[in-house]
């Protein structure tokens, strides 16, 4: 894995068929993401951020080009291999309604570990440590509808990192929370990146979020506009 | 977090919808138990009634007797057959009888009918409906070699009273006409006019002598079982026992009373068909509930699949939800069915006002009181059917949930 980039997109296009109309969500897009990055996909609404995250997350397939994760071409993998890859190598945080409403915070956070068939006791131990990390240990037994939006996102982040994935993909993780909460969530992700070396790639169109990114990948109309790396 | 727990909690999320659906399943159980248990009771009753009218649950006969019941066809050593049969477990009685046609006459009048020649020392009301329905006099006793018991209708036609003479004429084993004289010792009334006007009980020894039979010969041995459902098995055992004898055959009540067996089979078929239709309607309801629930949760499925849940696990989750629905439905079904079932097994509904007390079908008197009786296998059958239907109803929604790709699902909501 030494020199192989974590994520490679090679001339990727994604064209949606909408009736007779073809919508090019992403066009001829190339990107490399290295281990340990804290990068942001930014751009106006409809610029293709979600589409790109879905492609990297093995949730969607490109119309053209290749997507590689840890050097493996996703097009070569079958449905269950992809599911296994998502389970073991990728963490997801979505914009909202991330959590399963019938599970407690703790059960939500251990969902991926349960899918990995990790024994219950070990699961609990790891999850409680991570929930403490994100400041949710006290509220572990609550159901999502008993938590605020920000608290729900923390649980979602805990769920994304507890299985120690290669990369955490977050689609506008702060879009539905107030700015103070957004700052706290961002700080949490930054700290996890810094202390535990978790690779983050997230999308946003929030200027305050962009200010904290180490790398800004600017998108416009499904094309790369500018790739800006900061100190 | 186990899938089963998750499935249960998901079901309880929309409590009202789930409970209403479960109630429809429970109602199906109620209907199914009603149909099945009234059938089980009525069929058992009819079969047992028919058995005590002469032939038993099984009858051992000469192979040609059923097709051409002339009196030359007989079991030469019926007593030995009887002794052997009595050793078999599940057999509550085996009775040596001669059955055939005869002319009965008194004074000026005469009528044709059937006779059953019995050994009064062995017969009991439990195995003989005519002894159970005596309205006057009693059965001839063992020493009383010329006693006869006639039906009330025949007594009326022939102007007979207790102690009156009855002459009966039959064809003996050589095809010769023989006549004997009897005296009325008892009169029975079953309620079925054709039986009450056409059946006469005669003493076995007298008939044997009249027909020229050997001292242990008879036309059949009627076998009574604890449970009529054992008839086929015991028939098989007995057939094996006498497989080398060309003179002995064993018939089940289904074979000797084809009318009754046919009637029951047709009734049962309608019963099943009705239950199947009810089941279909309920299954459609379950499917609708699950489909709604699956469609509402598309985004949830999308997220779970994004997190690495396999399509097969999604399918399993929905199937488990359906299982819980089935279990809940079965439990509610037991709760609402039990009081009704207990009432119907103990008291029952009396339809004698509607159909009278002398209603018969397939040659058998029908009990005007509708009661329940549920065989264990019928109850198991209903439970399995409920389970099977809920699973079948879940297949389409489950695969719908599992077939979608995570992005499609994530788009929703
Ligand atoms: N399933 C689809 N069918 C057709 N067009 C689609 C589909 N999904 C996305 N698109 C189109 O692709 C383009 C990119 O969409 P995408 O969701 O990636 O944008 P985005 O940058 O995430 O926008 P936002 O900031 O609003 O979330 C848009 O023009 C969108 O309308
Ligand atoms: Mg988006």
Per DSSP, the total helix count of chain B is 15
Distance between the termini of chain B: 25 Å
Enumerate the spans of chain A where pLDDT stays under 50 for 5 or more consecutive residues. none
* Structural class by secondary-structure content of chain A: alpha/beta
CA-CA gap between termini of chain A:
24 Å
Radius of gyration of chain B: 30 Å
Q: Count the E strands of chain B.
A: 14
What multimeric state do the chains show? heterodimer
Q: Radius of gyration of chain A from the CA trace?
A: 17 Å
The pair of chains with the biggest contact is:
A-B, 28 and 23 residues
CATH fold assignment of chain A:
Rossmann fold
Q: What's the helix and strand layout?
A:
The complex is a heterodimer of chains A (231) and B (413).
Chain A: E1 7-18, E2 21-33, E3 38-42, H1 49-56, E4 64-69, E5 72-73, H2 79-89, E6 90-93, H3 105-109, H4 111-115, H5 120-133, H6 149-162, E7 167-171, H7 179-196, E8 199-204, H8 207-210, E9 215-220, E10 223-229
Parallel strand pairs in A: 3-8, 3-9, 6-7, 7-8
Antiparallel strand pairs in A: 1-2, 1-4, 4-5, 9-10
Helix pairs in contact in A: 5-6, 6-7
Chain B: H1 3-13, H2 15-55, E1 58-61, H3 78-85, E2 91-106, E3 109-118, H4 129-132, E4 134-137, E5 147-151, H5 152-157, E6 165-171, E7 177-188, H6 193-196, E8 199-203, H7 204-211, E9 220-225, H8 231-241, E10 249-252, H9 253-256, H10 258-296, H11 298-306, H12 311-346, E11 349-350, H13 352-355, E12 360-361, E13 364-365, E14 369-370, H14 376-403, H15 406-411
Parallel strand pairs in B: 3-8, 5-7
Antiparallel strand pairs in B: 1-9, 1-10, 2-3, 2-6, 2-9, 4-7, 5-8, 6-7, 11-14, 12-13
Helix pairs in contact in B: 1-12, 2-10, 2-12, 2-14, 10-14, 12-14
The structure holds adenosine-5'-triphosphate and magnesium ion (MG).
